[in-house]
Amino acid sequence: MTPSILNADFSNLQYEIERIAQVSDFVHLDVMDNIFVPNFTFDFESAHKIINSSALPVDAHLMVANCDVMGPAYAEIGCASVTVHAEATEKISQTLKAIRSTGARSGLAIKPNTSIEQYIDFSDDVDMFLIMTVEPGFGGQSFMEAMLPKIRRTREIIGSRSIWLQVDGGISIDTIERAAEAGADTFVAGSAVFKANDPAVMVTSLRNLAENMAD
Ligand code: DX5
Ligand code: ZN
């Protein structure tokens, strides 16, 4: 489970991350530049501070236009995983390899209207596919059921490779089982976690639902 702090209290992120640290594997950091998506979250300097003070390894999701430069830069400052958007990168293979060369995991994200088929050939450079289940840009949107076939297809493409399959957007106790059943194994949840009375209890509930489905 990888809670997204997009819907957490930005004025006290260190505390917000600590609240879920005991029960989460990573914290998901949504970086938006107001170019690739119509929203802005952190510049590099602010993100660097969050990464340095985080009680959890950071899974950076870069929704930025210049990801061929920023992807490796985020990997170099200590993110455990860096995901770039297939629609933004002009040098997919080179960027994924550069992220990996720092020791970070490389992720390739695809937006709802992008097909996975054209990216199969990059599988050898990918540690994680991220299938967006909302249009990137904002938290609190509804899970797009129409993405379930794409999640299934991606699971089929992964086959016996040890690539993680992440879903991001609208993941909650109402939707996580369907995403897990379709083949997702790594789950980002923002508002479901940080709007819950007890975020840590919610993370555990979500994890249990996903694991029961995967059994
Ligand atoms: C959307 C972000 C998501 C977002 C998820 O562009 O990539 O990570 O925080 O938030 P929820 O879980 O509220 O859909
Ligand atoms: Zn995200």
UniProtKB/TrEMBL annotation:
Top EC category: isomerase
Entry keyword Ribosomal protein: no
Biological process, per Gene Ontology: carbohydrate metabolic process; pentose-phosphate shunt
Cofactors that this protein relies on: Mn(2+); Co(2+); Zn(2+); Fe(2+)
EC numbers, comma separated: 5.1.3.1
UniProt catalytic activity: D-ribulose 5-phosphate = D-xylulose 5-phosphate
GO cellular component terms given for this protein: cytoplasm
GO molecular function, one term: D-ribulose-phosphate 3-epimerase activity
Record key words, sorted: Isomerase, Metal-binding
Family listed: Belongs to the ribulose-phosphate 3-epimerase family.
Stored NCBIfam families: PRK05581.1-4 (NF004076), rpe (TIGR01163)
Protein name (Swiss-Prot/TrEMBL): ribulose-phosphate 3-epimerase
